């Protein structure tokens, strides 16, 4: 008869996310995970499978949560520019908070690029979902006259997606909240009519 689990799976997964975000897949050892997750080796394998499967589950969970928060902020306001600003500033707050000083999604992209299909499937899905949301909001903003009439929503959405990535990298490099807010301000000014 199997022993019941003596830990909370979601808490353990959140701790794994933090370790992978800070150290990447290759930089994270199984002993580091066990210590952070406060579980034994057998519990890790019984509950999550191997390190790779744990990493992919952690990446999916982190990506879903992070993207959900960004998109919720983006659509929280009827005013398009205000919604985009909320999304970007929320991303900044997350990037500089003690709770999420490193981004697992950015780490996955920089560590693996396009070399690992299972990792790329997760990062591509998140990027695509975010891109579509930005493009939808931008089209709406152009149609309503809130944004520059000659703005290309597809290109601007790519720009905003790159801005999100750049904000996380800059935060990881030690950029202050004020510096990151300045980047957001420049990005927003690029969208408004002259």
TrEMBL record:
Pfam families hit by this protein: TetR_C_13 (PF16925), TetR_N (PF00440)
Keyword vocabulary terms for this entry: DNA-binding, Transcription, Transcription regulation
Signal peptide (from-to): none
Molecular function as annotated in GO: DNA binding
Keyword Oxidoreductase: no
Highest taxon of the lineage: Bacteria
Keyword Flavoprotein carried by entry: no
Protein name: TetR family transcriptional regulator
């Amino acid at each position: 008869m199997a022993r019941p689990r003596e830990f909370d799976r979601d808490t353990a997964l959140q701790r794994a996310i933090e370790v992978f975000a800070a150290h990447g897949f290759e930089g994270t050892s199984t002993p580091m995970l066990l210590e952070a997750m406060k579980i034994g080796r057998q519990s890790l394998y019984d509950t999550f499978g191997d390190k790779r499967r744990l990493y992919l589950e952690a990446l999916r969970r982190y990506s879903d949560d992070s993207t959900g928060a960004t998109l919720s902020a983006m659509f929280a306001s009827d005013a398009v520019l205000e919604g985009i600003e909320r999304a970007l500033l929320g991303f900044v707050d997350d990037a500089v908070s003690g709770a999420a000083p490193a981004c697992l999604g950015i780490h996955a992209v920089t560590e693996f690029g396009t070399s690992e299909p299972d990792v790329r499937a997760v990062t591509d899905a998140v990027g695509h979902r975010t891109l579509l949301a930005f493009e939808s909001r931008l089209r709406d903003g152009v149609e309503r006259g809130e944004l520059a009439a000659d703005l290309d929503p597809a290109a601007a959405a790519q720009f905003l997606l790159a801005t999100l990535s750049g904000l996380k990298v800059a935060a990881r490099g030690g950029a202050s909240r004020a510096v990151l807010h300045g980047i957001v301000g420049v990005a927003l000014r690029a969208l408004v009519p002259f």
